[in-house]
Design goal:
Helices cover 43% and strands 18% of the residues. The chain has eleven helices and 13 strands. It has helices at residues 11-22, 39-47, 63-72, 87-92, 94-114, 149-168, 190-200, 219-232, 249-260, 284-290, 298-312, and strands spanning 2-6, 26-31, 54-57, 77-80, 119-125, 171-177, 180-181, 203-207, 213-214, 217-218, 236-241, 247-248, 265-269. Strands 3-2-1-4-5-6-11 form a seven-stranded parallel sheet, with helices on both faces. The longest helix has 21 residues, at 94-114. It is globular and about 55 Å long.
């Protein structure tokens, strides 16, 4: 198949692109290589696949540029992963989220309609559950009270996709990712920041004294879920891609300490605006629709990240 991957130089997008190539698909990648974090990491990811893909450096908010790409390639499916990421950054820079996440997604949907592409898999987020006190988080739960602008834009993506499914018969799977981690991960995420500081003997900021729980989900498991979604997308579904085994932040730090062989210097801070105390994934529907469940333990996943980090940074 000929598949468009937006955000293909990003953490999840790169791994999905690599997996699609390995199974024999043709892949066109769109990414703006923005400076939310060091673009060199994005370029280094792309370097591993650049000879096998067609790459365009552009923003998904640029309708004219996207239209030229759609006109030049006949896409069978779209995997829309491009977005401005980060819960805390959305408080500082709200307009970036409306431009990339809302307008960008509308552009993709409109061009799919115009060029008669019917299959869409797109990234949502566990952030849409907001301050939901019911646990685990089920796709049947109401998600109309987001506590960050990032979460609100992701919920809007789900709503926009449903409209295009309803009006034009699109097949759309929206995937709510839960705290994805692993090699080539984002520098703004806890695992990357903690590993860097621990190896350098610097203190780490630990929010809420480490008393937060997350459904940490290893990148290889996420990629499997995305590829299954691209193969099985039909109708309209919202699915959780997350590990039903939650891990407390304090234990997560212990896993990094074990993998690095160094003790963390912890700087305890209160819960940050936009953060939630726990994310717990209910994946029963995902099992039914995709036959998917995560396989990689937090201990193995952290070890593999630390090994990659040390090799990438030449430790």
């Amino acid at each position: 198949m000929n598949i468009l991957v937006t955000g293909g130089a990003g953490f999840i997008g790169f791994h999905v692109t690599k997996a699609l190539l390995e199974r024999g698909d043709k892949v066109v990648v769109i990414d703006d290589l923005n400076s939310y974090y060091n673009p060199q990491l994005k370029r280094d990811r792309l370097a591993l696949v650049k000879d096998k893909i067609t790459f365009y450096q552009t923003q998904v908010s640029e309708y004219g540029a996207l239209k030229k790409i759609f006109a030049q390639h006949h896409f069978d499916k779209v995997c829309h992963l491009a977005a401005q990421a980060g819960v805390r950054y959305s408080i500082e820079n709200p307009f970036a989220y409306n431009t990339a996440n809302v307008l960008g997604t509308l552009n993709i949907l409109e061009l799919m309609r115009e060029f008669k592409v019917r299959d869409l898999v797109f990234a949502s987020s566990s952030s849409v559950y907001g301050g939901n006190e019911k646990s685990p988080f089920s796709v049947e739960d109401p998600v109309d009270k987001p506590i960050s602008l990032y979460a609100a834009t992701k919920k809007s993506n789900e709503l926009y996709a449903y409209v295009y499914h309803h009006l034009y018969g699109f097949n759309c799977f929206g995937l709510r990712f839960f705290t994805v981690y692993g090699p080539w991960g984002r520098p703004d995420m806890a695992l990357f920041k903690f590993t860097k500081s621990i190896l350098e003997g610097k203190p780490i900021d630990v929010y809420n004294h480490g008393k937060m729980k997350r459904s940490f989900t290893y990148i290889a498991d996420i990629v499997e879920g995305v590829l299954l979604s691209l193969s099985k997308v039909k109708g309209y579904e919202i699915l959780n891609l997350g590990n039903p085994r939650t891990v407390e932040l304090s234990y997560f730090i212990q896993c990094i300490e074990k993998a690095t062989g160094k003790k963390a210097i912890q700087h305890n801070l209160p819960l940050q605006p936009g953060d939630v105390l726990a994310t717990v994934a209910d994946i029963e529907k995902t099992k039914q629709v995709l036959g998917w469940s995560p396989q990689i333990s937090i201990e193995q996943g952290v070890q593999e990240f630390v090994e990659w980090y040390q090799k990438y940074h030449d430790y």
